[in-house]
Amino acid sequence: MMNNAMDTWLEPEELEVLTAEYRLSLNPLAADSAFCIPFADLLNQEKCQHYLRRVGDIFETTSETATVSLFAKRYAYLVVASGLYAMSLFNKGLNVTLENGWIESSYQGEVWLPKARLLNTRISMPQAGLRKEWRDQIIQQMFAGNLSRVWNALSKTAKISKSVLWENTAIYVYWLYEKKYVEGASFEQRKQFEEDYHYLLHDAPAHLFGESRNPLQQFNSPKTTTSESDTPIRVRKTCCYYYLVSDEPNDYCSTCPKRGH
């Protein structure tokens, strides 16, 4: 149990939301384990490269750079989506440490959407008056203790910039708090989402992310209209390399800096 926190469990209705909407899993895959791997094995270069070769087949690309970037999008989502939602809405902290998780996945020719399976399902709640301290510990465990370590390993394995991997992470955090989480939320729930989101973007110190700068703040560009979008969008600072796996030439994402906007 972490400092400033009490041990508890998820309620059935809370667990149902996290498993149905945010790709949390508590059960191992019964069969077809080709795309299942412990989180911690991503730090092992040999095991990680073997896994990424299989993932590259899903994306139908031989580009290691594109494979790692597209994989990182999915890994970032399955780590942060359920964890931040539980933190902000339920006031509960999932144990998303590297040692406590598996990527659970099968693939039958559709969109590849892996899930995160947690081994230890006990969770934490802040003690009275200590939510800010508890929140820091949840953020640090999720980002510095998991994503930063995996991004460091992947950037060395595939010679890809960590900036790409962190921006892949950031765009999901922006979307989750700005769009997904607030769907159907009450006024009080929205207030908590907004408070935590503001903290993540503007006040959370860099060490909670295991970096010299807060990456969520670093990539939080002002939204702007473009020649292709009347709705203001946040143009990326890095390219995610999706165009390398597209069937269309120069098929850049709508927010890609390569478009020129």
TrEMBL record:
InterPro entries: FhuF_C (IPR024726), IucA/IucC-like_C (IPR022770). This is IucA/IucC family C-terminal-domain containing protein. Residues 69-188 form the Aerobactin siderophore biosynthesis IucA/IucC-like C-terminal domain. Residues 236-258 form the Ferric siderophore reductase C-terminal domain. It comes from Paenibacillus puldeungensis.
